[in-house]
Each structure stands twice: as C-alpha cells, then as structure tokens.
Write a structure and sequence with these properties.
83 residues; Pemi-like Protein 1, Chain: D; two-stranded antiparallel sheet; 2 helices; 40% helix; elongated
Length: 83
C-alpha cells in the first residue's frame, strides 16, 4: 500500500484560549481515539509540529522510530569513517 500525503490530512483546527484543540471526527474514527483515552503528544523531531498517538500505540512507533534513527546514524558514521 502506498502512502499519499492527502491520506493523512483531516482539516485544520483552532487552538482555544486554554490551548485546547478538537481532533476532527474523521481522524478520531479512523484512529480509534475514544473519549477519555490517554494520548501521547510529542514534538516532531524535525519540523515545528506535533505528533499525537494513543498511549497503547506509542511504544511500537517509538521502537520503529528508534530503529530508523539508529540506521541513519550508522549510515552517517560509515560515510564519515569509511572502512
């Protein structure tokens, strides 16, 4: 299955006076975000933005992300220190 950027766009939201945002209904339904469920909010590592995950799904994402970073670091070390 190929990824298209427009597949991940749910619309825009407005930050309220207390810093609250409303997650669009389509996003909540597709991602299984239910009332009262705990979510992990992280800063995007490169761009000025946020990432939101269900706590139950965050561990798998972080493991995949860590593996990707380790691969990138290993690749950059090989470029700077060729064998």
């Amino acid at each position: 299955m190929s990824f298209k950027c427009d597949d991940s766009f749910y619309g825009s939201v407005t930050v309220g006076e207390r810093g609250q945002i409303v997650i669009p209904a389509e996003a909540r339904a597709e991602l299984g975000f239910n009332p009262g469920e705990k979510l992990l909010v992280m800063r995007h590592p490169i761009h000025a933005g946020l990432m939101v995950f269900k706590i139950s799904d965050a561990r798998a994402f972080l493991e995949e992300f860590t593996a990707m970073l380790e691969g990138a670091e290993a690749g950059s070390q090989q470029e700077t220190h060729p064998v």
